[in-house]
Design brief:
By secondary structure, this protein is an alpha+beta fold. It has two domains: 107 residues; 192 residues, Heat Shock Protein 90 (2-Layer Sandwich), CATH 3.30.565. Helices cover 64% and strands 13% of the residues. The strands form two sheets. A five-stranded mixed sheet has the order 2-4-5-7-6. A two-stranded antiparallel sheet has the order 1-3. It starts with a helix and ends with a strand. 21% of the residues are buried.
Amino acid sequence: MLTNIVRSRFFQWLLFWGASFWLTLQIFSQTETIRMLDLIYVCLFHIPMIFAVHAHDQVLFKRLLLDRKFIGYGVSFFFLLGATYFIYLFSFNDLSVWIFPDYYFVALYEPIEIIGFSLVYIFVFQMIDIARNWFAQQQDIARLAQLEEENKKAELKALRSQVNPHFLFNSLNAIYSEALKKTDKAPNMILQLSDLLRYVLDQIGSDRAPLKDEIDYLSNYVEMQLMRLNDPSRITFKVDGKPGDLQIAPLLLINFVENCFKHADLQSDEGFIHIHISIQDNTLKFSAENSIPVNMYSQNQLRAGTGIENSKKRLELAYPNKFGLELSSDDLIFKTNLYMELT
């Protein structure tokens, strides 16, 4: 509540005129002590100044100058200065006699002097008001940016939380398939899945993860998938370049890898999956190709997967203007090409 009072326009006006009253009282006082005459004189002096400042701010500046009505502003400003001088005369010649009959003021300022005072007050007040508005605008912009950043983090967190069940569902389907065949691969795949889930749980709340750990995670996932294949040679996973200290949004690439295994035609002799990751400087390039079963998946169906849409949204949020993604299919081959600028 105190903050709202301090930021209120009325409080700032009181502060400005309070400072002006104290300063002019020090200037106009002719003795070491402040007399009642000095207080009355300063009060009367401020009446025309208050009129000039607020008439200019509320009418001339906001309704004419800001609307680029320059001629109207110039004419009105001229009349404002004249009206200010007449109010000054009224304050000292008429108002003072009516309110303070026991006091008489001899020395009055000339018109040019009152106009000079008015110009100084108008200029100082308007500059302070412009600065105040600018700082308030910057604070609003900062609050809006902070709100957008918080919304962005919340959306990213929600998208990351979708990776875990999606990944788990696909992996359990693979293990279930091996269990139905009553092979010895299922127990090993469960252990492999346990290690993968440990990484998922460690990174699900993180904004960034070491690129090296992310690549190891993808490699372990591919190895788990290879366990259920009779001909693992049709699957290739290649990494060129060194991750170094590069960081990446965690669990971002797994959806593209999962998509390959989900839609690839690995039952036919021509079925294949080729995944290639290239690292050069701060740029990561991810490319993947997989065969498509005849008359089973159309290009539109492949693009509409939950995992791919999840990754697209995360890329847009985490790497705005720093990534490129192309999905295409031809000759029964689905292709994914992604590049990202990492830090």
